[in-house]
Specification:
By secondary structure, the protein is an alpha+beta fold. The chain has helices spanning 13-23, 41-46, 58-68, 78-82, 85-91, 101-108, 110-120, 134-143, 171-184, 253-274, 306-310, 318-326, 365-370, 403-417, 432-439, and strands spanning 4-9, 30-36, 49-52, 72-75, 95-97, 128-131, 148-152, 162-163, 192-196, 201-210, 214-216, 221-227, 231-242, 279-289, 292-299, 341-349, 359-363, 373-383, 386-400, 418-421, 423-424. Strands 12, 13, 16, 17, 18, 19, 20 and 21 form an 8-stranded antiparallel sheet that branches. Helix 6 (101-108) packs across helix 7 and helix 8 (134-143) runs antiparallel to helix 9 (171-184). The chain is globular, with a radius of gyration of 21 Å. It starts with a strand and ends with a helix.
């Protein structure tokens, strides 16, 4: 079994999760090289070597990969993927986990996914309309008689979508937000999508993809709203949960498979119509409504925090999975997970999702590990006990035989081992009370 040389591109919590999977849970003797624009504390501590640079500088990334003679790369950030980093790896004869630029449009242009679904399975999309003119959006908003969501078509890192009755009080506030999107170019595409507000039970299914096969991970339920009780602004994510049977109390096996089949149909459509092979991670955000399963959106990278629920219970070697994706051999391997519940919670700083100050916290990383938890960094160390958030700080994942067990352990690990000023987390994530809000009619 020879030494593996792997290049990991990215610097957030999900990239730290992959770094741990490569360096702490793999059977291979591995040299892990990392390229990031800022030094994630956890990745730095695991890397054989790392380089800091612009993650949009494909030439510099390619030069680093060729210099280190890597076996394959894993490209995580959406900005690098949409900037054709995978295309450049392929052109240079370097194997890569990460979708091409066109495949990345499933996330970077929300209208692209809707167009595909209209062709292959229109029933899973809500009523939606795309606009490139602010005036046309406003006229449309004034004309419709149903509640709706306002979505910048581009990537907004989880906090760009605003919904009537949650972040928006009424149509006037929606129109003000549309004006803000166009003036500030939120999402970067100068395009707005107005979608029917969906009511139901939300969930995430992530999958390993090799262009033909989608191997689903355990279902998760994430919580993006800022405050306890699921209130306030959208954020990149406050935490997430999973269950020992890898389903959810409101999601049965048939519904899980139906959702995974939607993802499979989309990536096969890309291969058939566009001749583009999707290799990498696909995260499907779904909602179970009274009219059936609907697609909220797809991300072409793992969910953060959802992947932080998965890596701690993954039993199959992550490096083997990556190579199976690259070689289009997923159908020939079996991916296993522990039958454990997980609770993941992000610890954030005041002002989140747009914190202005450094985080001051003392973290006992060894105690968290010895106590059965996993710590994931999404921040950069300034000096002793001072960190710069990005925009989140750190996440703790705990597992247990039941959700309650995982919840209690997660709270204990945070309470005893992360001390700081003006830091907080949602204590309700993982509670039965919050879960009941989504499983009771």
């Amino acid at each position: 079994m020879g030494k593996k040389k792997i290049l990991l591109i990215g610097r957030w919590g999900k990239t730290h999760a992959f770094a741990k999977a490569i360096m702490e849970k793999s059977k291979y003797d591995t040299e892990m090289y990392c390229y990031m624009d800022k030094p994630n504390v956890g990745i730095v501590n695991l890397a054989t070597e790392y380089m800091l640079g612009n993650m949009m500088d494909n030439d510099k990334i390619m030069e680093y990969a060729l210099e280190k003679k890597i076996d394959f790369a894993i490209a995580v950030p959406h900005m690098a993927l949409s900037n054709r980093i995978t295309n450049d790896f392929i052109e240079n004869g370097i194997r890569c986990v990460g979708p091409t630029e066109r495949c990345s449009r499933l996330e970077t242009d929300k209208s692209f996914l809707r167009e595909i679904l209209e062709e292959i399975n229109p029933d899973v999309s809500p009523i939606h309309n795309k606009f490139n003119s602010e005036e046309d959006v406003i006229d449309h908003i004034k004309s419709i008689d149903y509640d709706f969501a306002v979505k910048p078509a581009g990537v907004t890192e989880g906090d760009g979508v605003k919904v009537i009755g949650i972040q928006l009080k009424d149509k006037d506030e929606a129109i003000d937000y549309v004006d803000e999107i166009f003036k500030k170019n939120i999402g970067g595409l100068a395009t707005v999508i107005i979608e029917e507000k969906l009511v139901g039970r939300e969930y995430t299914i992530q999958a390993f993809i090799d262009g033909e096969t989608a191997w689903g991970m355990p279902a998760t339920r994430d919580y993006k709203l800022l405050y306890e009780g699921d209130k306030g602004l959208n954020t990149p994510g406050m935490g997430s949960i999973s269950f020992p049977d890898h389903l959810l109390p409101f999601l049965n096996k048939d519904e899980y498979l139906e959702s995974l089949n939607i993802m499979t149909d989309v990536i096969r459509h890309l291969a058939k119509i566009y001749r583009e092979v999707f290799v990498g991670f696909l995260s499907g955000q779904f909602i179970k409504t009274s009219e059936g399963i609907k697609v909220i959106e797809f991300n072409v990278r793992p969910g953060d925090s959802e992947i932080l629920n998965i890596v701690p219970i993954l039993k199959t070697d992550f490096v083997d999975i990556c190579e199976a994706m690259i070689d289009r051999e997923l159908r020939n391997i079996h991916i296993e997970y522990e039958n454990k519940a997980t609770v993941c919670k992000y610890i954030v700083n005041k002002g989140f999702p747009k914190p202005k100050d450094d985080m001051r916290m003392a973290i006992d990383e060894k105690a968290i590990k010895d106590g059965g938890g996993d710590l994931f960094y999404s921040c950069f160390k300034v000096n002793e006990n001072v960190y710069k958030p990005s925009p989140r700080g750190v996440a703790v994942t705990a597992k247990g035989d039941t959700l309650e067990e995982a919840y209690q352990l997660c709270e204990k690990l945070i309470r005893e081992n992360i001390k700081g000023e003006d830091i907080w987390h949602r204590k309700d994530i993982g509670t039965q009370e919050l879960l009941d809000k989504y499983i009771l009619d």
